[in-house]
Amino acid sequence: MVLDGIAKTALLGVEMGMTLVLVTVGLTLIFGMMDVINFAHGSLYMLGAYFGLTVVSVTGNWWAALLIAPLLVGLLGGLIEYFSIRPLYGRNPLYHILLTFGFAIMLHGLVTEIWGGQVQNISTPALLDGSVDLVLFSYPLFRLFLLGVSIAVTAALWLAIRQSDFGIVMRASAHDSEMVNALGTDVKRVFTAVFVLGSVLAGLAGVLLGTSQAVDPGMAASIIIQAFAIVVIGGLGSYRGAVVGAFIVGMLNAFGPTFAPQFTDALLYLLMAAVLLVKPAGLFGNPEAT
Amino acid sequence: MPSESMPHEKRSEQYSRRKFLAGSGAVAGASIAGCLGGGGGGGSDTVKIGFVLPFSGTYSFLGESIVNGVKLRLDQQLGGEIDGRTVEYIRQDTGADPATGASITQEFLQSENVDFIVGPVSSAVAGAMKPEIASAGSAIWLNANAGNYKLVQDNCTRYHFRTSFNTWQTSAPLASYVKDNIADNVVLSYANYTFGQQSKNLFQEAFEEAGGTVVDEIGAPLGTSDYSSFLQEIENSGADAVFSFFAGSDAVNYIKQFSSFGLNEKMTQTGSGFLLSADTLPAQGKAALGMYSLLHYTPTKQSDRNQAFVEAYSGQYDTTPNVYACQGYDSGLAAEMAVKEAGGTDTDSMASGLAGKELDSPRGYFKFKSSTHDPIMDMDVRQVVEADGGGVQNEVVETLSQVEGPTWGCSL
Predict the structure, then answer these.
(1) Which parts pass through the membrane (chain A) (predicted)?
(2) Confidence band (pLDDT; 50, 70, 90) for B7?
(3) Neighboring chain B residues of A125 at a CB cutoff of 8 Å
(4) Closest residue on chain A to B61 (Cα)
């Protein structure tokens, strides 16, 4: 009895953590590359859910939503980067914070105006409905799918950043964008590509979590706070940090209610404070980075 | 959809503003003459209603629903007049901020001379508004949603009329139904904030009084999106039933996850009506099937009075009414009753006129309890069943007649 309880909670933690990675990776990559703190990242996640909702209601096909909604969010992210963030590169980072914060507020209003303020939900596709017997306990199939997709995306990105040509350019640009520019690569296009990538991932997370959770205009604010905390714990700009941080927070979310039911709200912030006291740059942050 | 109601909203706003400008000269004259009596009022031939509600943020949908309900009664059904007096509206957005609510209230009372204040949605905002309204004594407060029983417990004021409900009514009366029909032991789960804690405590009190046992309680932070680890605690409690308070997106997340982890096969879910209401059911879908809840208004209730309301509301706004729309509509009914009883807009006469009076509400007859001005009304125990169209809906399984509730030491 005790063993299956712990096993199930652990699986929950892994699942919650890995799903968060889809959101935190974009946030941390965008910061790592462009020094942009993107407050609108949660709104892009929210738009993923709402686009998903609309695609499902038009086509009746959840899988179409899984494909189309993230691409639409990516397109929008690209436009935002090209027309508003790009002119501000090299300026005081506060400009980006104010700009993206403004986008977050605008998108919240826009979503409320277009889709209404009521709670909605993307219905689970028939293929992924139901639960699976995992010997010790049974587990909802959709959440296993969520876990599988998150792990696959995280691993693929890891490989891409480590191994691919684009990954090398990305890392080089993050390290010294002027030098990369001088060597004949248009860094601005790399930046746009990274912003689009982060947006697509946020959109993907929006469709996936919009299916297992409620979709409402408040979802952007609730995810962005947690995502920022994770990125700070892992180290701003570090891919590894975003993954490890999300994993730790997932575990915290899973085991918190069992061991400290009255403090679940505060645990995340206590952890963040503790990490920052010991390692001010976060677990995997580069203390020398500007 | 809110967009559906926009053109109409705009029209009446402009209309009232023009009307107000036209009338303001006369009002200014009267003010200088210095004798408006106890009554507020934007003029002797008008009734002025101030909406202190959220029109932005998470609760904007609730604010719009309440306004729609009020206007359905006063504009559509009464033609914008009560007893020959033209109804005017003014509205301001509280967001979810108590300080904003208090300052809007102050402005409405002092500069706008409203006769009625309708709102707010949040009990925290209501707490901040109360001293303003009590000390001014120049408007009737039609509380169209804030359910905190402490509004009546601490310094109750005779200008406060609840056209909604109090926390006790949406939790405690369910206890004996659960004990008699569902289980003699429960686990409590709730959103860990004032309203959730009150609902949980009031249910527990009543359930233990009825001879039942509360096995455990699990509070989750307000706004939790993933309840899975809390659900495990609920499952581990081994109780036969659960009583919960969650609302809005929390209710959707909680119920969907409750069923996806198979808890619905092991225990019976019950709760305060906001857990399974007309706003959340479309998103909760089949995950909500078989669950019980208690509320004062159910859109699917089979009564002529309610069906007429649903028809009128759907015809006007192109969407089915929810509990907030009903509370708005009843605020409209109460304003109408108050002006007619008092034969004008004198605040004290209206307060005396409303106390103990019965309203013909879509929820069923209800009246303001003389000692607290809280509603005495029928409460429906509902169960979620499959709807004809393929979705799910609440079906009233039992109506608890004229549920009254404690006075909390208030004796008006």
Answers:
(1) 6-29, 36-56, 62-83, 95-116, 136-161, 190-211, 217-236, 243-260, 266-285
(2) very low
(3) none
(4) A117
Query: How many cross-chain Cβ pairs, A to B, lie less than 8 Å apart?
Result: 107
Look at A213 and B226 and tell me if their CB atoms are within 8 Å. yes
Which of A10-24, A26-40, A274-288, B129-143 is predicted least confidently? A274-288
Three-state secondary structure call for residue B383: strand
Q: Do B2 and A262 touch (CB under 8 A)?
A: no
Out of A102-116, B9-23, B386-400, which region has the weakest mean confidence (pLDDT)? Answer: B9-23
To test the contact with chain B by mutation, choose from A114, A119, A225 the residue with the greatest count of B C-beta atoms within 10 A, namely A119
Mean pLDDT score across all residues of chain B = 88
First to last CA, chain A: 50
Q: What is the pLDDT of residues B290-299, one digit of tens each?
A: 999 999 999 9
The distance of A266 to chain B (nearest Cα, Å) reads: 10
Three-class SS string for chain A?
Answer: CHHHHHHHHHHHHHHHHHHHHHHHHHHHHHHHHHCCCCCCHHHHHHHHHHHHHHHHHHHCCHHHHHHHHHHHHHHHHHHHHHHHHHHHCCCCHHHHHHHHHHHHHHHHHHHHHHHCCCCECCCCCHHHCCEEECCCCEEEHHHHHHHHHHHHHHHHHHHHHHHCHHHHHHHHHHHCHHHHHHCCCCHHHHHHHHHHHHHHHHHHHHHHHHHHCCECCCHHHHHHHHHHHHHHHHCCCCHHHHHHHHHHHHHHHHHHHHHCHHHHHHHHHHHHHHHHHHCCCCCCCCCCCC
The CATH number of B172-295 is which of 1.10.8.60, 3.40.50.2300, 3.90.79.10, 1.10.472.80? 3.40.50.2300
**Could you give all domains of chain A from N- to C-terminal order, each with its CATH number?**
2-278 (1.10.3470)
Say what the ipTM of the complex is. Answer: 0.90
